[in-house]
Amino acid sequence: MDRNAAKAEAFMRHLGPLQGVLEAFVRRALWDPNAVGDVLQGAIATAFRDFQMYVEGTNFRAWIFRFVHLEVLSTNRKLHRTQLAPLPEDVAKENVWEAEIDEPLFRQLLDDPEPVLERCDEALSQAIRDLPAAEREVLLLRAIGEFKYREIAEILQIPLGTVMSNLARSRTRLRQRLVEHARKTGLFRRDNK
Questions:
Q1: What local confidence, expressed as pLDDT, does residue 179 receive?
Q2: What would you report as the CA-atom Rg of the chain, rounded to the nearest whole angstrom?
Q3: Can you give the pLDDT at residue 103?
Q4: What residues have CB less than 8 Å from 91, skipping those under 6 apart?
Q5: CB-CB contact of 139 with 128 (8 Å)
Q6: Side-chain half-sphere of 183: how many Cα atoms within 13 Å?
Q7: Which residues of the chain have pLDDT under 70?
Q8: Cα(153)–Cα(60) distance, rounded to whole angstroms?
Q9: End-to-end alpha-carbon separation of the chain, Å?
Q10: Is 2 helix (H, G, I), strand (E, B) or coil?
């Protein structure tokens, strides 16, 4: 087997099990859903070109995600997307876990969660899309990529503390948005006193 064929075989052996999670990450992190294939193709082509720099036995998943992250970042920058403004101080401090639940609707949710989950899926997707880029990337790497905090810091080349604070902020924003959605759809009562 020649050198190029061996390189391609080794690359595909590492890449194969990760294709689904890479696509899921790009689909959630990218602002233009029509560019998912192009971004994946570009990231994988660049990673393949630089595959000789990968050290066998190290974390290939984190290594390839770095290429994917950079390609997503580059594509999103080209779109000049504006970021969501910070949450008002009073919203960030509200304890959303104390919202009063509409008991009959909650029982219905427990009996058959699918209709409610289908309604929440688009709300969750939109809430994730609306997160500031730094928070969204950390959240998606943690939730979809299942990376540890240190791995996320390595992929994004940011301090560990920044990873932790961005993740906490993104979770707070998502929780708030989903509580708002639940109130609008009747899962939570409007007055939670």
A1: 82
A2: 20
A3: 55
A4: 176
A5: yes
A6: 15
A7: 1, 80-120, 187-193
A8: 15
A9: 72
A10: coil
